Amino acid sequence: MNKTLPRPPARPRPPTPPPRPLLQPGPSESAEDQPQADELLQRPRVDPRFRRRWAEARRAEGRRRLRVLLIGAGTVLAAGAIFGALNSPLFALRRVVLIGNRHTPRSQVLRAAGLRPGQTLMIDAVNARAVRAVDALPWVQSVSFVRRWPWSVVVRVHERSPAALVAAGGTGTVDVIDRTGRVLDAVPAQSAPALPVVTGAIGAAPGQDVKPAAPVGGSRLHELLQAAAATPRVLARDHLRFAYASGQGLVADWRPAGAEVVLGSASELRFKLEVLAELASRVNLSSYSLVDLTVPDRPALSPLGG
Question: Is there a domain that residue 96 lies in?
Fold first, then answer.
């Protein structure tokens, strides 16, 4: 009789491992921070309207960039066109208006400034070199240039005022100078303007300064020029002559009266000369040999033969 062998006991099945997530956590992230597969599968799709808006925003950004590029290119082209026009005969100088040149010829000013109508460009018409060149002209004290587009330039000259005469070294001419000693012009002695005369100075070329002649120094020459600039017109027309005398200071020789005038120091020069003009209008100074104005409030007059 066959015996049935007993069946071996069934082995227990190993537990089934849980499903692995679709995204593995990174080195600095935990598994809880990673989206689960179910969450990824359940994420909603982007609404087509949002996609259209996003595309429109991208297109608008592109249009803005293109607009900026076109504006920049247009600006560069416009600047180039303007630069080219300013450097062309289209904007050449056509008219020069000159103001204030009583003694300085117009041609001399234009030549010094380099202004040539029809040739000089407007952008080159006003520069520091032109200002320096016109300032160096004898009569010119200052000058200003103003452009008036598109074709005109206004030149305004402020001239110096003549203050005295200086003998030009036996040449038969005298130098007309201003209060600083700058020579403005050289004129014949017989046609000299009504100005006082300064002795003790060496004449120079127009546009340069006179120099002191011994024994007069630079400071004494400055005082003589101050006295000449302070002279009233009634005394200047008779060519009141100023000099420096050792021991007396500033003196003046008034030839119509024949009297020597002692001014002393350079203080109160204008007041002293005004007192002299007043005395001349009231007293016959030809009867006196000396008029002492060192103290202008108390003038002292020495009669002839006294």
Answer: yes
Cα separation, 200 vs 166, whole angstroms: 9
Is-contact 175 225, C-beta < 8 A?
no
Same domain flag for 182 and 93: no
Specify whether 136 is located in the same domain as 118. Answer: yes
Distance between CA atoms of residues 20 and 221, nearest Å: 112
Q: Which domain holds residue 145?
A: 89-159
φ, ψ dihedrals at 113, nearest 5°: -80, -10
Together in a domain, 186 and 259: yes
Q: Name the residue among 155, 125, 160, 154 with its Cα closest to residue 139.
A: 160
Cα separation of the two ends of the chain: 196
Amino acid at 46: V
Q: Which residues contact 126 (CB under 8 A, 6 or more apart)?
A: 145, 146, 147, 153
287: domain CATH number is 3.40.50
Q: Are residues 96 and 177 in the same domain?
A: no
Tokens of 212: 């002191």
This prediction's pTM: 0.70
Residue 72: per-residue pLDDT: 81
Contact between 191 and 220 (Cβ < 8 Å): no
Q: What are phi and psi of 139, to 5 degrees?
A: -85, -10
User: Which range, 19-28, 37-46, 80-89, has the best average confidence (pLDDT)?
Assistant: 80-89
Which residue, of 134, 159, 184, is where some domain finishes?
159
Total structural domains within the chain: 2
**Tens digits of residue pLDDT in 34-45:** 555 555 555 567
- 254, 243 contact by CB (below 8 A): no
